């Protein structure tokens, strides 16, 4: 029996055609080696689909969808997968050796002009590349939602929430806020993962302001196995 489930989650804000092309790519590179659980806000055809309805795009709801999918997994390990990301096949061959949350670092951000990555290798991780045991992922997120059954995060500058400094981020990173130990490690696959950056994505809003502010070592017109950024963008993003 396979020991890894790919947990794909989406708020369905990605345009339909790019979203389907990226899902097709995921299925192509894994070649039916791993079961997929998809948790979406609109029905999609990918593995075992769980549609939670249009609950809205937010960090709180993103991790809620991950928890829903993780609880359904039947394997020891879970790899999370996002709707705007092209994964490498060898990314899914990694397995954690302990009870830490592991995060991929070999990731490039793609826009039409060129590829870009953050200069600090230790800052290149995100939930898009999480690999962990199912039990610790479920335990971590269950504890968060037991403490905060409703979204505590500020909605705007007018919100006077006492939880304004709360960081609802990757498991293992800021877990002291939820009464848990921080347990995060990084790993690097041989082949890169590519994430498309656009305004409607959660990561896009975070990265667009810094996009391109990097040295030549961390920018590229072309990446091996993916070719030129302009061509890749046209292949996946343009109707």
Unreliably modeled segments: none
The main β sheet shows up as: 7 strands, mixed
User: What is the fold named in CATH at topology level?
Assistant: Spore Coat Polysaccharide Biosynthesis Protein SpsA, Chain A
Helix percentage range: 10-25%
> What is the CA-atom radius of gyration, in angstroms?
17 Å
Mean pLDDT: 89
Q: What fraction strand?
A: 15-25%
List SSEs in N-to-C order: EHEEHEEEEEEHEEHEEEH
Strand order of the largest sheet: 3-2-1-4-9-6-10
Which class of secondary structure composition applies to the elements?
alpha/beta
CATH architecture: Alpha-Beta Complex
- The count of β-strands is 14
Shape: globular
Tally of discrete structural domains: 1
Name of the CATH first level? Alpha Beta
Count the helices. How many?
Answer: 5
Distance linking N and C termini = 39 Å
Note down, in words, how this protein is organized.
With about 240 residues, this protein is an alpha/beta fold. It contains 5 helices and 14 strands. It has one domain (about 5-150, about 165-235): Spore Coat Polysaccharide Biosynthesis Protein SpsA, Chain A, CATH 3.90.550. Helices cover about 25% and strands about 20% of the residues. The strands form 3 sheets. A 7-stranded mixed sheet has the order 3-2-1-4-9-6-10. The relative contact order is 0.18. The model has no long low-confidence stretch (mean pLDDT about 90).
